[in-house]
Structure formats: C-alpha cells, structure tokens
Amino acid sequence: MEPCRSLALLAGSLGLASSLVAISTDFWIVAMGPTSAHSGLWPRGGQEGQIKAGYIHVTQSFCVLAALWSLVAVGFLVLSCIPSLSAPGRGPLVSTITAFAAALSMLVAMAVYTSERWGQAPHPQVQTFFCWSFYLGWVSMVLFLCTGALSLGAHCGTHRPGYETL
C-alpha cells in the first residue's frame, strides 16, 4: 500500500509542521478594544500574573507531547520507506500508534484551552476571539488522525509472509 504510506507521510509532515507553528506563535487569542493585543501559549512579562497558569501549562505540555509523538510517527514512516532500515510491516504499525497518541494529546490540549478561554467572563469594552494559531492547532489534530488512519491502512495492506513461503 504505497499510496497510503505516502499520504500518511504527507499528512504527518503537515501535521507536525502545523503543530510546531501553532505552538511557537502568539496568535492563539486576540483582544480588540481601546487597544488590541494578542496572546499565545508562552506569555511574556506582565501577562503571566493575569492568566491562570494551570490550563496554560497543561496546554503547553500536551502540545509539546503531541509534537514529539508526531515526530516519532513521521520518523517511523520515513524508515518504513527504506526496506533495509525497518522490520517488514512494523514501521506503519508503530506510526499508527504514535500518530493516534499525537492526535489524542493535541485533542486534550485544544479542549483544555478552548474550555478555559470559552468559559472566561467577557469584559464589556474588550472583545476577544480565537485567532489563526489556535485553529492551526485544531488542524494539526485532524492531520494526526488522518496520519494514523492512513498508516493503519498501509499496515493492513502490506503483504506478510505466511506458511506458503516456508
């Protein structure tokens, strides 16, 4: 199943890139009012005292964990394309497990961040809304799910030697 493996590698690479961009940029939430400001996962200076640190730390941790899981998934997909470096059929299986772990980690991070920000009381003069980095985090979660599904298809479609080859 070369097409599944190639598409899984593409989806995994795009998911990894989008999660790294989402983690590293400061446009998760934008506030418009008398002055406008934007904020990300890594608050600077005076912003730390204004934010409940718990949900930010959970979101940071699970986003970084998702990026690491996806790096492992992409690595095993790359290794599965090189027959001399991988065990037959094992690369897509490991990639499936780690891609689904990345999707679950990103889902937890995004759900925690969304629920905390959604539940905050609005300020009468300031309008806040989610911005592109936030949505890129959700896109990376969907890409990790696609990577897992395509890797599973690649694993199930590979020919494994049976009794007839002995």
UniProtKB/TrEMBL annotation:
Membrane topology: Multi-pass membrane protein
Pfam families linked to this entry: PMP22_Claudin (PF00822)
Predominant location category: membrane
Subcellular location per the Swiss-Prot or TrEMBL entry: Cell membrane; Cytolytic granule membrane
One GO process term, biological-process aspect: killing of cells of another organism
GO CC terms, sorted: cytolytic granule membrane; plasma membrane
Protein name: Protein NKG7
Keywords: Cell membrane, Cytolysis, Inflammatory response, Lysosome, Membrane, Transmembrane, Transmembrane helix
